[in-house]
Amino acid sequence: MSKEIEIGGCIEVPDEITVDEVCDAFIAFVESEGWLFGGGFHEVTDENTDSYKNRIN
Q1: Residue 23, Cα to own-chain centre: how many angstroms?
Q2: 42 within 8 A of 22, measured Cβ to Cβ
Q3: What pLDDT, on the 0 to 100 scale, is given for residue 57?
Q4: Which has fewest Cβ within 10 Å: 13, 17, 44, 50?
């Protein structure tokens, strides 16, 4: 038996860290626990910050 947990939020990282690096680290953590993740990652920028905040509120 399993359940799903939805995650909504942002991860703040140094400028030199890429979205791919964050994704890889997150997926590595999830898989190390024997869990599965379905979803996506994108970088929040000044241009898309408002649209992202509207999606999570």
Answers
A1: 7
A2: no
A3: 54
A4: 50
Taking residue 52's Cβ as centre, other Cβ atoms within 10 Å add up to: 15
- The pLDDT score that the predictor gives to residue 50 is 61
- The pLDDT score that the predictor gives to residue 32 is 98
**Please, which residues have CB within 8 angstroms of residue 10's CB and are 6 or more apart in sequence?**
44, 52
**Residues spanned by the domain of 49:** 1-57
Q: How high is the mean pLDDT in each 10-residue block of the chain (57 residues)?
A: 91 94 96 94 78 55
Sign of the four-CA dihedral 19, 24, 26, 30? positive
Q: Which residues of 19-48 are buried (b: 16+ CB within 10 A; e: fewer)?
A: eeeeeeeeeeeeeeeeeeeeeeeeeeeeee
